[in-house]
């Protein structure tokens, strides 16, 4: 895999580096008050002049909105629009850039984009505008990834972390660690010139302490990934249990709307239902599974398999028990043994149908059960708090913004850790200083691949292909 160094940030990027002029719709599809199209590249202003008739014929000024008609190739107006021009080096992409704002609606914006493409622009690929911003030095690679994170953030907490990444706080921390490793390498390489002098024990001890401090800081970052991944991808919470335990009812209550069909007939839900909710600021992928039963035909067996797969991959399982069923204790003892090693909250539902307070079987005395009624909402508040408590256990400290949310970043940080640990072994073993310095440079390279100081086209392709077209 060939690697490239990132171009230096510059306010006048050479158009030969980015020869194409690209265009795309940058607002979501559908009807709305306004829609927008972006053009980026050295021909942006030239393309606009072919399709835009301004009310005022003054020369376009940077960042000044202009009113006029967007026309097709025959000269007929498509829509009355506002346009803004951003010069090279002072736009989001770092290229000459134009944005066109028209009335919202799929047809109008599609016609405008079509005219631009017919006039010589190329349709932008997913994430290509942000890729240009990275290559032009407007942001580093971790900030570019944060653009996608902030777009996809669906709760306040996931937005907070994405915003800190985009602001550069995360990059600054990574860069400081890199600088500390570079400083150690410089000291080692400086001492190579005096190889005939025996290094003193206190010098070696100081070197090892410095490496250990950096390793400790990187290790702390790696450990934030568990919570960071959940903030980015969402907590997977499965609602499971035997048929007619109230899974769909609880699903609807947590969603605060009627999403699942609820009937008195056991086995109404044949496949799982999935929805996203914001639970106390945490993104939660809530999944209601089909009821687990030991008998049935092909459909029931398929439902059973699907439910088991959801439970096995869940971060948290809400196991529902029908307290009105006379055999619920025996059933629970059987069910607990078959459940995977997952965090489980036992939810005793239909408490409104029970005369006496239910007690757990002796074999499950260590388990706590939350008594609820999906009919009367009894116990729902306590259950929500219990779920939130479980989610908070995985959360890193969000106040610093130093949270790893990317599997790619975690992998590179682990590579840096491995290199640092190897160097810690090499030094007391009397390894050549050149070898120690080379090992530490491997840690620097791993960090550089996070920020994009070193990158490959394959990595850029993988990252930006996940973006939407228009960003």
Fold and architecture overview:
- With 471 residues, the protein is an alpha/beta fold.
- The protein folds into 3 domains: 4-138, Gyrase A, domain 2 (2-Layer Sandwich); 146-224 and 401-451, tRNA modification GTPase MnmE domain 2 (Four Helix Bundle (Hemerythrin (Met), subunit A), Up-down Bundle); 233-392, P-loop containing nucleotide triphosphate hydrolases (Rossmann fold, 3-Layer(aba) Sandwich), CATH 3.40.50.
- 44% of the residues lie in helices and 17% in strands.
- The chain has 15 helices and 15 strands.
- The protein has helices at residues 44-51, 106-118, 128-135, 141-152, 156-167, 169-192, 201-223, 225-233, 247-255, 298-313, 328-338, 380-392, 407-426, 433-451, 457-464, and strands at residues 4-5, 22-25, 34-40, 52-54, 66-71, 77-86, 97-103, 122-123, 235-241, 273-279, 282-288, 316-322, 344-349, 369-371, 454-455.
- It has a 7-stranded mixed beta sheet with strand order 4-5-6-7-3-2-8. A 6-stranded mixed beta sheet has the order 10-11-9-12-13-14, sandwiched between helices. It has a two-stranded antiparallel sheet with strand order 1-15.
- A hairpin with an 8-residue loop joins strand 2 (22-25) and strand 3.
- Helix 6 packs antiparallel against helix 7 and helix 6 runs antiparallel to helix 14 (433-451).
- The protein is flat, with a radius of gyration of 29 Å.
């Amino acid at each position: 895999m060939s690697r490239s160094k990132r171009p230096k940030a510059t306010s006048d990027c050479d158009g030969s580096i980015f020869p194409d002029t690209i265009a795309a719709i940058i607002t979501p599809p559908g009807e709305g008050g306004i829609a927008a199209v972006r053009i980026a590249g050295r021909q942006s202003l030239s393309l606009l002049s072919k399709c835009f008739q301004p009310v005022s014929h003054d020369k376009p000024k940077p960042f000044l909105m202009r009113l006029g008609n967007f026309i097709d190739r025959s000269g007929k107006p498509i829509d009355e629009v506002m346009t803004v021009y951003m010069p090279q080096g002072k736009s989001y992409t770092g290229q000459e850039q134009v944005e066109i704002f028209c009335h919202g609606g799929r047809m109008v914006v599609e016609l405008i984009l079509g005219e631009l493409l017919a006039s010589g622009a190329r349709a932008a690929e997913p994430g290509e505008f942000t890729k240009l911003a990275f290559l032009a030095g407007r942001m580093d690679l971790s900030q570019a990834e944060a653009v996608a994170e902030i777009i996809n953030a669906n709760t306040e907490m996931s937005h907070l972390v994405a915003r800190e990444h985009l602001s550069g706080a995360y990059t600054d921390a990574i860069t400081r660690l890199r600088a500390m490793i570079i400083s150690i390498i410089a000291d080692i390489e400086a001492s190579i010139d005096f190889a005939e002098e025996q290094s003193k024990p206190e010098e070696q001890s100081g070197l090892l302490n410095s490496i250990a401090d950096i390793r400790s800081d990187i290790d702390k970052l790696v450990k934030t990934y568990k919570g960071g991944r959940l903030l980015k991808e969402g907590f997977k919470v499965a609602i499971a249990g035997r048929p007619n335990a109230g899974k769909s009812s609880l699903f609807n209550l947590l969603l605060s709307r009627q999403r699942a069909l609820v009937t008195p007939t056991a086995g109404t839900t044949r496949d799982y239902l999935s929805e996203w909710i914001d639970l106390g600021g945490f993104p939660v992928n809530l999944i209601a599974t089909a009821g687990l039963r030991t008998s049935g035909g092909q459909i029931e067996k398929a439902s059973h398999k699907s439910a088991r797969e959801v439970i096995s991959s869940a971060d948290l399982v809400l196991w529902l028990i029908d307290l009105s069923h006379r055999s619920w204790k025996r059933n629970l003892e059987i069910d607990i043994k078959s459940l995977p090693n997952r965090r489980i909250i036992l939810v005793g539902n239909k408490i409104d149908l029970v005369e006496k307070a239910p007690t757990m079987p002796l074999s499950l005395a260590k388990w706590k059960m939350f008594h609820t009624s999906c009919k009367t909402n009894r116990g729902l508040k306590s259950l929500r708090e219990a779920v939130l408590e479980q989610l908070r256990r995985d959360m890193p400290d969000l106040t610093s913004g130093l949270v790893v949310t990317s599997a790619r970043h975690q992998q590179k940080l682990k590579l840096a850790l491995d290199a640092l640990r190897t160097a810690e072994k090499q030094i007391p073993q009397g390894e050549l200083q050149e070898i120690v310095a080379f090992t530490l440079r491997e840690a620097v390279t791993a960090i550089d691949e996070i920020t994009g100081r070193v990158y490959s086209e394959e990595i850029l392709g993988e990252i930006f292909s996940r973006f939407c077209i228009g960003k």
